[in-house]
């Protein structure tokens, strides 16, 4: 009799290759993990590489909550050229000599794009406008506007400014940058807006995501590495890393699993999702404080 293959519930941290969509990675992981129950916690553009958090089996229920955490990126912004997509994937729409842009002007432009800002996502993005993906409207040649959305940029730093010459001969500047930001931020929109503020245009030529919440690049493996040796972070460990931990006794654990709204300690008020564990260290549920009581977001026990 053949033994049934079982994939553990947990997270798989992938170092996404360039040229793959996030959906491509999910499809590949379904084959590697031999399960249909695979999802991702927030997309990464095809051009970009780096940390993509996948959930396998029961851990797919964690993904929507993990998607809301802070992200960190390393990238290259080219000043002097605009593109249709705001990154190197799209056709160039304008070229302007950027060689005279000063470091002071760059720093001033970056300061305006740091903190809590309103950002208009790139038109070639997956944002839905009246139920239709923005990139489809753009591809069909529609003239439309995307409303600005609040995002938070906690850090936007320039490590290096390099003189370069674009393929069409335009003198450009390449900025090596790091960004720490809230979920929903478009790094290519930051590149576009910085270029616009400096009057020369700008787009993103490289992007690597180095962190999603507590999950960093050093924990990520390539798809080939996972193919050889699939590494799944157990769901309890994943929840402990991402959310505040609340240990309950056996009686409370039973009540919680049976749908009873427990009283929550004051320390968890307003802290967002909280991971609940029983005395044996089993991860039971993700809850949120609501009027002093634990409202269940997802049950795992």
From TrEMBL:
InterPro entries xrefs: PsdUridine_synth_cat_dom_sf, PsdUridine_synth_N, PUA-like_sf, PUA_sf, tRNA_psdUridine_synth_fam2_C, tRNA_psdUridine_synth_TruB, TruB_C
Record SUPFAM superfamilies: Pseudouridine synthase, PUA domain-like
Pfam families, per the entry: TruB_C, TruB_C_2, TruB_N
Catalytic site positions: 45
EC number(s) from the headed UniProt entry: 5.4.99.25
Residue ranges of every copy of the Pseudouridine synthase II N-terminal domain listed in the record: 31-187
tRNA pseudouridine synthase II TruB subfamily 2 C-terminal domain location: 243-300
EC main group: isomerase
Domain tRNA pseudouridylate synthase B C-terminal: start-end pairs: 188-226
Family membership: Belongs to the pseudouridine synthase TruB family. Type 1 subfamily.
Entry function: Responsible for synthesis of pseudouridine from uracil-55 in the psi GC loop of transfer RNAs.
Protein name: tRNA pseudouridine synthase B
Species for this entry: Streptomyces dysideae
């Amino acid at each position: 009799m053949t033994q049934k293959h079982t994939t553990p519930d947990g997270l798989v941290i992938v170092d996404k290759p360039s040229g793959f969509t996030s959906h491509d990675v999910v499809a590949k992981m379904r084959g590697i993990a031999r399960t249909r129950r695979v999802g991702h916690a927030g997309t990464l553009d095809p051009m970009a590489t780096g940390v993509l958090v996948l959930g396998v089996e029961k851990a797919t229920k964690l993904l929507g909550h993990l998607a809301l955490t802070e992200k960190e990126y390393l990238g290259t912004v080219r000043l002097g050229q605009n593109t249709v997509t705001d990154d190197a994937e799209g056709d160039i729409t304008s070229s302007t000599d950027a060689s005279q842009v000063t470091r002071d002007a760059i720093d001033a432009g970056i300061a305006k794009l740091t903190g809590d800002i309103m950002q208009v996502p790139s038109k070639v993005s997956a944002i839905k406008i009246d139920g239709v993906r923005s990139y489809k409207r753009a591809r069909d040649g529609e003239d439309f506007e995307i409303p600005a959305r609040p995002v938070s940029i906690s850090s936007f730093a320039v490590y290096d400014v390099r003189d370069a010459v674009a393929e069409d001969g335009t003198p450009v500047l390449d900025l090596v940058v790091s960004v720490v930001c809230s979920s929903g931020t478009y790094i290519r929109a930051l590149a576009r807006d910085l270029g616009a503020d400096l009057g020369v245009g700008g787009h993103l030529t490289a992007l690597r995501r180095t962190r999603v919440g507590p999950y960093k690049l050093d924990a990520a493996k390539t798809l080939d590495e996972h193919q050889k040796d699939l590494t799944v972070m157990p769901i309890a460990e994943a929840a402990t890393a991402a959310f505040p931990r609340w240990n309950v006794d056996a009686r409370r654990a039973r009540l919680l699993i049976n749908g009873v709204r427990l009283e929550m300690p004051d320390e968890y008020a307003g802290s967002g999702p909280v991971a609940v564990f029983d005395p044996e260290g089993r991860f039971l549920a993700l809850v949120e404080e609501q009027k002093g009581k634990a409202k269940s977001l997802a049950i795992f026990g």
